[in-house]
Amino acid sequence: MEGSAAKPAPLVTVERPAAGDPEGLLVLHHGRGTNERDLLGLGDALDPERRLRVVSARGPLQLPGWSGYHWYVVPEVGYPDPQTFEAARAALAELHDRLWVETGVGPERTVLGGFSMGAVMSHALGWSGDRPPVAGVMAFSGFVPTVPGWEPSLADRTSTRAFVAHGDRDPVIDVEFGRAARDLLERGGIDVTYVETPVGHQIGPTSLAAAGAWLPEALGL
Predict the structure, then answer these.
(1) CA angle at residue 188 from 205 to 111, to 5 degrees?
(2) What predicted TM-score, i.e. pTM, was given to this entire model?
(3) Residue 164 phi, psi dihedral angles, 5° rounding
(4) Secondary structure class of 29 (helix, strand, coil)
(5) Helix pair angle (82-103, 117-126), 10° resolution
(6) How far apart, in whole angstroms, are the C-alpha atoms of residue 18 and residue 12?
(7) In the Cβ-directed half-sphere of 219, how many Cα atoms lie within 13 Å?
(8) CA–CA distance, 71 with 31 (Å, rounded to integer)
(9) CA dist 170 to 113, 166, 177, 200, 210, Å?
(10) What is d(CA 23, CA 135) in angstroms, rounded to the nearest whole number?
(11) Which strands make up the sheet holding 13-16, listed edge to edge?
């Protein structure tokens, strides 16, 4: 369709800077119905030494009847709406490319992280064959999406590490989605750290501590 390839509008972002020259980049993608500030506090929790530049982005959509912002429309859990999913993927690709140029910190020193819907987008950008391989994908309470016209590309990015955390009492995105993501990535040759805990749809303290240990390892720090 004419105009469908137009450059996406820049996403709104906030950040927590590194204490000095950044040794890596952590880009965070929030969950459904929140905003760019929702996950920013993870910066200090995961990187207390402030070695990383931490950037958190706002989803591009506002939806009737919902507060906050969204990355895509949800017709069914696990199956994002293709049009809004691809628009969000394009907007995030533009953001990531711009951050790599601005900071001089490349994809090989970048981790893409998110919660819920933001975890889905982290998977989508991390495992897209048309994107540069990153150091790691950190996904809390999400899934690898099923979208017509998109599929994960794993054989060409086995250097990318994955952290997948899910609560076995999650009433929003069932834990089977987290287990399926783990299994899919492991079959594709990805080094996966999987953490399953007795919590609901949230980032629990056990998962947070495990992510904090995994992050510097993924970045080689």
Answers:
(1) 45
(2) 0.95
(3) -125, 120
(4) strand
(5) 70
(6) 19
(7) 24
(8) 8
(9) 19, 8, 10, 4, 19
(10) 12
(11) 13-16, 52-57, 24-29, 110-115, 136-140, 161-167, 191-197
Give the pLDDT of the chain (221 residues) as one tens digit per residue.
333 445 667 899 999 999 999 999 999 999 999 999 999 999 999 999 999 999 999 999 999 999 999 999 999 999 999 999 999 999 999 999 999 999 999 999 999 999 999 999 999 999 999 999 999 999 999 999 999 999 999 999 999 999 999 999 999 999 999 999 999 999 999 999 999 999 999 999 999 999 999 999 999 99
Which residues fall within 8 angstroms of residue 188, CB to CB, at 6 or more apart?
Answer: 152, 154, 155, 158
Q: CA-CA distances (angstroms) from residue 19 to 23, 134, 173, 202?
A: 10, 22, 36, 29
With CA atoms as reference, report the closest residue to 157 among 177, 130, 182, 181: 130
In degrees, rounded to 5, the angle at the alpha carbon of residue 96 between the alpha carbons of residues 221 and 87 is: 145
- Residue with token string 């137009």: 6
What does the block give as tokens for 42?
A: 């993870």
